[in-house]
Design a protein that fits this description.
Blueprint: E1 5-10, H1 18-32, E2 36-41, H2 42-45, H3 68-78, H4 83-94, E3 97-103, H5 111-120, E4 142-148, H6 165-178, E5 183-184, E6 188-190, H7 198-212, E7 229-230, E8 236-237, H8 239-244
Parallel strand pairs: 1-2, 1-3, 3-4, 4-5, 4-6
Antiparallel strand pairs: 7-8
Subcellular location: Cytoplasm
Catalytic activity: 1-(beta-D-ribofuranosyl)-1,4-dihydronicotinamide + a quinone + H(+) = beta-nicotinamide D-riboside + a quinol
GO molecular function, one term: dihydronicotinamide riboside quinone reductase activity
């Protein structure tokens, strides 16, 4: 098997952080397996988070009504995206696996990482109306979220105060990663490491190291294939799939739940 290339998109301000240790562990373990590992350290890079007209070199097509997606698609086609976006797209293009390493901020990624997603995953390069979800442009690549929380696991449960983590993850894993076609691996969640003693944090990192030994061979999370939806009828689930799932206890996914109970842990474990 050819050596794999891995991109770690990393967002934490401190090299003394648990996130930094998790990033370093991934780099070390994957490199030991023969992988080429590249890290985009967003804070160290002072990566620009805002998606603006400055992301395009030269004149834009319609300055009076600037539309980011359309303008960056044209710029990508003409080789006029700015240097930092072009460089990150190069890294992504060359990678087989992308790991997003971050502390969860307000139930999502930090702004600087969201900016990476907004600016790097441009229309035409990462997705199009014709090529998205299971038919997405990046469907030959794997991606995963690896992150720390500030709250304990019990608080992110179906009866916890923060709500079900599967629901929290749906916009990121389905609405961004799977939308672009990525095969989404189960997330690596480090529950409230700042509230744990040093020994327990070490145990978390050892668990991460163990998982990394086989992460490249992992099966991805399950999502409903795009061809199950009728593009001529507003991309509604086709009647035959509605009927097939009518008698089942759970909905198809967190978002496509068909008014049923959510499938347990479908955004946190593969094969469910």
């Amino acid at each position: 098997m050819a050596a794999k290339k891995v991109l770690i998109v990393y967002a934490h301000q401190s090299s003394a952080s648990f996130n930094s240790a998790a990033k370093d562990a991934a780099k070390e373990v994957l490199a030991a397996q023969g992988c080429t590992v590249e890290v985009s350290d967003l804070y160290a890079m002072k990566f620009k988070a805002a998606a603006t007209a400055e992301d395009i070199t030269g004149d834009v097509k319609n300055a009076a009504h600037f539309r980011y997606a359309e303008e960056t698609k044209l710029a990508w086609e003409e080789g006029k995206l700015c240097a930092d976006i072009t460089e990150e797209q190069r890294k992504l293009t060359e990678s087989d696996l992308i790991i997003f390493q971050f502390p969860m901020y307000w139930f999502t990624v930090p702004a600087i990482m969201k900016g990476w997603m907004d600016r790097v995953l441009t229309l035409g390069y990462a997705y199009s109306e014709e090529r998205r979800y299971s038919q997405g442009i990046l469907k030959d690549k794997k991606a995963m979220l690896s992150f720390t929380t500030g709250s304990h696991e019990s608080m992110f449960s179906a009866d916890g105060v923060n709500g079900d983590m599967n629901v929290t993850l749906w916009p990121l894993q389905n609405g961004i990663l799977h939308y672009c076609g990525f095969q989404v691996l189960a997330p690596q969640i480090f529950w409230a490491p700042s509230r744990l003693p040093s020994e327990a944090r070490g145990t978390l990192l050892e668990g991460w190291r163990t998982r990394l030994q086989g992460v490249l061979a992992e099966k991805p999370l399950s999502f409903t294939p795009l061809d199950c939806f009728d593009g001529e009828k507003g991309f509604q689930l086709k009647p035959e799939f509605q009927e097939k799932n009518a008698s089942k206890e759970y909905g198809l996914t967190v978002g496509i739940h068909l008014g049923k109970a959510l499938p347990p842990n479908s955004q946190m474990k593969a094969g469910v």
